[in-house]
């Protein structure tokens, strides 16, 4: 991988730890190897690649050029500027790769042709591209801007330093590449450990250098509610660690736009009915009061699925989320729901008896399906954690199950 992967991830902390070690491992693998083939520089490895024997120098007159229907894309223009800076402002790998290190010519430019101006970013977005650097000409073609982004990353990784402090690239007969998996993501948790904006954006940069395309933002949890809700500002005021450790609407929009400009979707997670203690601090009546010896004991359990006020809140809240986060998917959590508080609460006991429920997993099923219906009516698709399936809940067939635990998930 290009050394700029390491330089970027060094500045990221907890959210980028996994990417850092991944990049570090592959860089040291490259250094300790002979570096005898050009493909050693590439991470991840393209679908197919063929290299020639020519070597082209790249001087400061090098430029990117754009053509095709997507040439005027602001995403593409920003990427070309960004990679121009990466080529000349970030130290390249210090050893040449390939059979020859003596330039036989100069590469004056890379023509980037983007066929479509469609900037839709979703699970089915085409990220394929074709790259060639041969005969003194560079060509990158892609169906849309996101394929071009992946090709630009590959091109930047192929640049290496020469003994005279210059830059060069080996002949690329042809690289044809497309992702093996449509979903390639990382998750950050900003509730337990608040991450400042610089760290999040640095993490997104590291993702782009590794051609990852989904940021799963576990934005709130029991510990804090740092999302600045427009509709329910008191939840943020009471549920965040403090007024400083909060993501404003401007912050959220910045993360979404910054990620999209790098071909990365942002899927937010608002985990309920458990993992919601921070929600209840600023919205009375949302959580279930727990009872001991027939009296409230002052503690609270999961969100209370029984009162109409819960669903009025959920309807308003997720309507806001659907407007703020443009991705097709919302992660609804659903993991680690304890039934103890529900079991202790006389109002829930009475409701279950009235509705013929005897199993608290059926109460959870009631909650989840009502929430799925609500989100579906907002034209969003949904993801839930694995426990919902493990617990035998009957949920909508189009629900995406997020597997995070071992056991028998393969058999299931």
Quick synopsis:
With 412 residues, this protein is an alpha/beta fold. It has 13 helices and 16 strands.
Describe this structure in words.
The chain is α/β, with parallel strands linked by helices and 412 residues long. 34% of the residues lie in helices and 22% in strands. It has 13 helices and 16 strands. The protein has helices at residues 3-10, 17-32, 74-89, 145-158, 197-209, 233-239, 249-260, 277-280, 308-324, 340-344, 346-354, 360-376, 387-390; strands at residues 48-58, 63-67, 105-106, 109-114, 129-134, 137-142, 160-161, 167-177, 185-189, 214-218, 265-269, 287-292, 295-303, 329-331, 381-385, 400-402. A hairpin with a 5-residue loop joins strand 7 (160-161) and strand 8.
List the defining traits of the structure above.
22% strand; 412 residues; disordered N terminus; alpha/beta; three-stranded parallel β-sheet
How is the topology of this model organized?
Layout: H1 3-10, H2 17-32, E1 48-58, E2 63-67, H3 74-89, E3 105-106, E4 109-114, E5 129-134, E6 137-142, H4 145-158, E7 160-161, E8 167-177, E9 185-189, H5 197-209, E10 214-218, H6 233-239, H7 249-260, E11 265-269, H8 277-280, E12 287-292, E13 295-303, H9 308-324, E14 329-331, H10 340-344, H11 346-354, H12 360-376, E15 381-385, H13 387-390, E16 400-402
Parallel strand pairs: 1-3, 2-4, 4-6, 9-10, 10-11, 14-15, 15-16
Antiparallel strand pairs: 1-8, 5-6, 5-8, 7-8, 12-13
Helix pairs in contact: 1-2, 1-5, 3-4, 5-7
Radius of gyration: 25 Å
Order of helices and strands: HHEEHEEEEHEEEHEHHEHEEHEHHHEHE
Helix content: 25-40%
Low-pLDDT runs of 5+ residues are 1-18, 20-36
Number of helical regions:
13
Strand content: 15-25%
Could you tell me how far the N terminus lies from the C terminus, measured between alpha carbons in angstroms? 37 Å
Characterize the biggest β-sheet. 8 strands, mixed
What is the β-strand count?
16
Structure class:
alpha/beta
On the 0 to 100 scale, the average pLDDT is: 89
What is the 3D form?
elongated
């Amino acid at each position: 991988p290009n050394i700029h992967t390491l330089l970027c991830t060094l500045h990221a902390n907890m959210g980028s730890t996994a990417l850092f070690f991944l990049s570090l491992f592959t860089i040291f693998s490259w250094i300790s190897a002979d570096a005898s083939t050009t493909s050693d520089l590439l991470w991840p490895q393209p679908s197919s690649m063929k290299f020639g024997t020519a070597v082209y120098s790249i001087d400061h007159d090098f430029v990117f050029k754009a053509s095709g229907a997507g040439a005027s894309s602001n995403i593409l223009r920003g990427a070309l500027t960004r990679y121009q800076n990466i080529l000349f402002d970030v130290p390249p790998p210090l050893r040449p790769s390939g059979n020859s290190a003596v330039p036989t010519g100069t590469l004056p430019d890379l023509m980037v042709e983007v066929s479509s101006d469609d900037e839709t970013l979703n699970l089915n977005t085409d990220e394929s591209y074709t790259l060639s650097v041969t005969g003194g000409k560079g060509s990158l073609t892609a169906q849309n801007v996101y394929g071009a982004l992946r090709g630009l990353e590959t091109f930047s990784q192929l640049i290496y330093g020469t003994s005279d402090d210059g830059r060069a690239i080996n002949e690329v007969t042809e690289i044809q590449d497309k992702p093996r998996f449509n979903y390639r993501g990382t998750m950050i948790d900003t509730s337990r450990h608040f991450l400042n904006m610089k760290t999040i954006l640095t993490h997104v940069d590291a993702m782009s250098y590794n051609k990852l395309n989904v940021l799963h933002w576990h934005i709130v949890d029991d510990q804090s509610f740092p999302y600045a809700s427009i509709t329910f500002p008191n939840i943020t005021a009471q549920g965040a660690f403090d007024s400083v450790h909060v993501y404003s609407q401007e912050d959220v929009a910045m993360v979404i736009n910054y990620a999209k400009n790098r071909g990365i979707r942002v899927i937010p997670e608002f985990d309920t009915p458990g993992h919601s203690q921070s929600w209840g601090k600023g919205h009375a009546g949302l959580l279930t009061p727990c009872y001991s010896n027939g009296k409230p004991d002052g503690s609270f359990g999961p969100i209370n699925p029984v009162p109409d006020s819960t669903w009025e809140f959920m309807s308003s809240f997720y309507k806001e989320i659907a407007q703020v986060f443009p991705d097709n998917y919302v992660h609804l959590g659903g993991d680690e729901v304890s039934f103890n508080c529900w079991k202790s609460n006389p109002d829930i006991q009475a409701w279950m008896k009235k509705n013929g429920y005897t199993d608290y997993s059926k109460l959870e099923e009631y909650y989840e399906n009502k929430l799925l219906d609500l989100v579906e009516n907002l034209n969003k698709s949904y993801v839930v954690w694995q426990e919902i399936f493990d617990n035998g809940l009957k949920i909508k067939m189009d629900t995406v199950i997020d597997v995070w635990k071992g056991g028998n998930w393969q058999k299931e």
